[in-house]
């Protein structure tokens, strides 16, 4: 079967992941179309990052993932970043082009990285040690890294965590502009902020190990979904008799 522009970019069917007795994801299904902006919401430990790790091919899983994206850009959670890592923004971005850490990058790569950093407003600190950057600055560097490879699917894991209100506003403005300029690009973004999802995401996926709701944000982000998704916060979701 050949793909055309009306095909979903990403199809996830009955995706399940377990770590020992804990079910991180339980038969999760959804689709992402070209040009869509999907918010992924759910309480801490509900499987959101695990879902992204599966899409990136970093986890073993049961079920099916059909990913038709040519390239996937990924912005990890900045709050988990190891600040003792010896590197500079330019090198981070070049590693997004070459797939490896650059020892002596060619001039062409340095230029490409500089332009990518400038586009996200991070041109001023391209050569500063990563350890000296704020959370918001680091987040821009990783956004530049994700975009430099010209992805058609962009995965963002809580990109606004640790970023002030202005930085957060700038980020969403940037993503909206980017999508308008690159109409086929789909974005899936993990967020804890329902208002952000309501305002910026066409569609929302609410997870609590399984799908609590998925569809247009205005229809899915209801009080009932909020209660069902967050009502069990803090409780382990462990194997029941069905999964033994
Ligand atoms: N490598 C692992 N080994 C064992 N358990 C894991 C592993 N990774 C995740 N888990 C467990 O799987 C569940 C889902 O974790 P995950 O990180 O996907 O949640 P999350 O929704 O992204 O959480 P948060 O909002 O806190 O970032 C949790 O119970 C977590 O403890």
TrEMBL record:
Pfam short name (any one): ABC_tran
Source species: Thiohalorhabdus denitrificans
Identification of the protein by name: Zinc transport system ATP-binding protein
Sample GO molecular function, one term: ATP hydrolysis activity
Keyword Transport set for record: yes
ABC transporter domain sequence ranges: 10-233
Assigned keywords, A-Z: ATP-binding, Nucleotide-binding, Transport
Record-linked PROSITE patterns: ABC_TRANSPORTER_2
Lineage top rank: taxon: Bacteria
């Amino acid at each position: 079967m050949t793909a055309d522009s009306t095909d979903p970019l990403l199809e996830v069917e009955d995706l399940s992941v377990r770590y020992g007795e804990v079910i991180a994801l339980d038969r999760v299904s959804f689709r992402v179309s070209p040009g869509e902006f999907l918010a992924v919401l759910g309480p801490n430990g509900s499987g959101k990052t695990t879902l992204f790790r599966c899409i990136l091919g970093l986890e073993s899983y049961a079920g099916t993932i059909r990913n038709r994206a040519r390239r996937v850009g990924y912005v990890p959670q900045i709050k988990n970043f190891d600040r003792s890592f010896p590197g500079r923004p330019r090198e981070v971005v070049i590693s997004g082009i070459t797939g490896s850490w650059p020892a002596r990058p060619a001039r062409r790569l340095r230029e490409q990285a500089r332009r990518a950093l400038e586009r996200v407003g991070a041109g001023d600190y391209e050569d500063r040690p990563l350890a000296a950057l704020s959370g918001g600055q680091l987040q821009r560097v990783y956004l530049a890294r994700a975009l430099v490879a010209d992805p058609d699917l962009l995965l963002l894991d809580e990109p606004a965590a640790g970023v002030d209100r202005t930085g957060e506003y700038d980020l969403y403005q940037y993503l909206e502009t980017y999508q308008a300029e690159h109409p086929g690009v789909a974005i899936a973004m993990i967020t804890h902020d329902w208002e952000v999802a309501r305002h910026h995401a066409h569609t929302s996926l609410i997870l609590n190990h399984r799908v609590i709701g998925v569809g247009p944000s205005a229809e899915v982000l209801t009080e009932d979904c909020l209660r069902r998704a967050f009502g069990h916060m803090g409780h382990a979701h462990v194997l029941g008799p069905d999964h033994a």
